[in-house]
Amino acid sequence: MTAADRWNAKYADWHEPGPPSEFVVGHADLLVDCATAVDLAGGAGGTALWLAEQGIDTTLVDVSERALEIARSAAGERDLLLHTICADLEADPVPTPAELTRLAASAVPQGGWHAAVCTNFLHRPLLGTLHALLAPGGIAFVLIATVDNLLYNARPGRPFLVERGELPGLCAGLEAVSFDEGWFGQRHEARLVARRAD
Ligand SMILES: C[S@@+](CC[C@H](N)C(=O)[O-])C[C@H]1O[C@@H](n2cnc3c(N)ncnc32)[C@H](O)[C@@H]1O
């Protein structure tokens, strides 16, 4: 079974996008100068739609066409513009901006996005290429549960968790604006806000 099959099955009985990431919403002040944003593995679009509601030209990337359909439908109902790209972000090599452009030219701004979001999706090689998706000075918001989360939660399983202190080092070419690790409610998470260095 492919990742697309697995995730299309998970989203089969979803009909609404769900809420935006409170981590991203909590940093709204850092988004005021952003004209474009991408949410990577953004699922049914809760965060992407919130970004679009802020007036940001937003692209949602996910492997699940079903999740993208839910997001597009909600965008239509809310009268929002939302670009979507169905792509396997775990492909080897990780899709480059050129490859994403090939999939959906109008969804990829020339020169990179001003903001990139990646929450609850861990593919280490992707995090290493975030800088290439961002415009110079662009900002990334990355949130991943850590191995400590296993103390109280069986899921996500170990392959989907970062080690403590690992996250900033995975995001090559980005300079940390803030890095927090700890219990956020019931989950132990690593939360990184970082800017493209050059
Ligand atoms: C745990 S959900 C997180 C969704 C959203 N980012 C959030 O924080 O609520 C993981 C998402 O990754 C997507 N996904 C899984 N494998 C993927 C892949 N290989 N390429 C792109 N997206 C993938 C799934 O479809 C799903 O929407």
Helix/strand/pairing category: alpha/beta
The fourth-level CATH homologous superfamily is Vaccinia Virus protein VP39
In the predicted model, the low-confidence regions spanning at least 5 consecutive residues are none
Q: Specify the overall morphology.
A: globular
Q: Give the distance, in angstroms, between the N- and C-terminal Cα atoms.
A: 40 Å
H-E order: HHEHEHEHEHHEHEE
Number of domains: 1
The number of distinct helices, counting runs of at least 4 residues, comes to 8
CATH third-tier fold name: Rossmann fold
Strand order of the largest sheet: 3-2-1-4-5-7-6
> In this structure, how is the largest beta sheet organized?
7 strands, mixed
Residues in helix, %? 25-40%
For the record, the CATH architecture stands as 3-Layer(aba) Sandwich
Strand content: 25-35%
Bound molecules: S-adenosylmethionine
User: What's the CATH C level?
Assistant: Alpha Beta
Radius of gyration: 16 Å
Q: How confident overall, as mean pLDDT?
A: 97
Beta-strand segment tally:
7
